[in-house]
Design goal:
By secondary structure, this protein is mainly α. The chain has 2 domains: about 200 residues, no CATH class; about 110 residues, no CATH class. The chain has 15 helices and 6 strands. Strand 2 and strand 3 form a beta hairpin. The longest helix has 18 residues.
Length: about 325
Amino acid sequence: MFLRDLQRLLDEGQFTATYKFALLLGLADLAVERGDDSGAPLQVPVSLIAERFVALYWGHARPFPGSSGGSAAATLSQNLGQNIAILRALNEVQRQYPTLSEARRQPHWARLLTQAAQVVVEMPLFRLQTLRGEIKEFLYENKIHEGAITLKPGIAFNLRRFHILIQHLVRGAWVRHIRSNPRNVPLLGSILDLEEFLFEIRRAQYPRIKETLRDLQKGRCFYCQQPIRTEDALDHFIPWAKYPSDLGHNFVLADRGCNADKSDLLADLRFRDRWEERNGSENTILTEAFRADAVPSDLAASRSIAEWAYALSEESRTALWAPTTFP
């Protein structure tokens, strides 16, 4: 029923701009971070949806290099008319601060989130569930109470359960929407990696986090426990491919060999226990490093993401990774 309704939303929803795609992706992420598998309703503050919008559209606001006729770099259009308001706001910010982590440090960050929240409420929030003139409120009721919407019973559960599938469906529909916009033809030409351009966040450098993890791990790899003698790597404990997020508590320091070998796999349960113990006992020190590098952190959300990822792995009987030399 849920997937059928979601498919119908993507097929029959009126997507004149791309805001509805961003809303769906944001709700799926927040269900993983703040929900559980009980099937209970879930309150989702509009302010958190606004933060997701800024993060999702950050890469879209970058100029896309022209690919035909010597076109100059320009921002891809996400609407048939004037480009959407949130991109114009982000364009202004990016002229001064080219990375998201830099922008988060600035005094105007709160104002940007307020603008994004206003866009969410005025544009997609109460229009998402309109299908060819029929309003089908299967995700949430179209009302805000105490600054939040409430996902209906079972919705957070399904958004968590089918998160990877939803990511693929919605991102694919978003890319097709941008490709089909005549205003983008001069820029896109025959480019094949549009999805990568729009959604792959450039990995930032986080020197304070690396320094802190080096001290906490005593210069050893989080996984094999051997001294890191060559170049180290800031590894996403819950792999980026499973949940693309830079929440601070998800980082560990690994040597290049373990980082490459682990790749997109979940680590053995013994490493999960070690990761959870570290985050609990060293939370104060870690949080200071996250603030210094302007990296968002939410320990409860990171734990919820890990619980979700390992539950899916257990259900599908996916093999867990461990290094050849296991401590």
